[in-house]
Write a structure and sequence with these properties.
- By secondary structure, the chain is α+β, with helices and mostly antiparallel strands.
- The protein is built from 4 helices and 4 strands; from the N terminus they run H-E-E-H-E-H-E-H.
- It has a 4-stranded antiparallel beta sheet.
- It is globular and about 60 Å long.
Length: about 160
């Protein structure tokens, strides 16, 4: 058991040495996708990161604007069918989550933004294992979907 713990400790230390490289890749992936989604201000609310923070995201949080014709479940299904994994945002208005249904709560003001994130938000991966080619593929799939939205809107 002691040998196993020691080997796990060395493995952890080896991974920590790779952390700067991992963080650089996550930052690059984030910037590539941010630049891409920034072209679609009618459809998406993009994450804001405080300029003084060091943030290394594993996933890109994306929120569909209420006035966009995009239906979140349709987009997520399209992405998943094209081998792009998505995840729901657990946060949002936590009061609506089943685990909190019977908990007494109080709020101050409305929770419109939390409700919007819960209804229209989702995550796509940007972890350090993704290559430029994979990010380009993601952008291509999103572009195809968005072009279909424009086409169907014109019909």
């Amino acid at each position: 058991a002691l040998e196993r713990r020691a080997s796990m400790r060395y493995l952890g230390l080896a991974q920590l040495k790779k952390l700067p490289k991992f963080n650089a890749r996550r930052t690059k992936n984030f910037k590539m996708l941010y630049k891409f989604f920034d072209q679609y201000p009618d459809h998406f609310i993009l994450p804001e990161i405080h300029p003084a923070s060091e943030t290394y995201l594993l996933a890109f949080p994306l929120t569909i604007k209420p006035e966009s014709p995009i239906i979140r479940n349709d987009l997520i299904t399209y992405l998943e069918n094209n081998k792009i994994q998505t995840r729901p945002v657990f946060a949002g208005n936590i009061i609506h989550h089943p685990a909190y249904a019977n908990i007494t709560s109080r709020t101050h003001g409305n929770l419109n933004n939390a409700d919007l994130i819960m209804r229209n938000g989702f995550l796509i991966g940007i972890h350090h294992g993704l290559t430029d080619e994979m990010i380009e593929y993601m952008k291509k799939v999103f572009t195809q979907y968005l072009n279909n939205i424009k086409t169907s809107k014109l019909a």
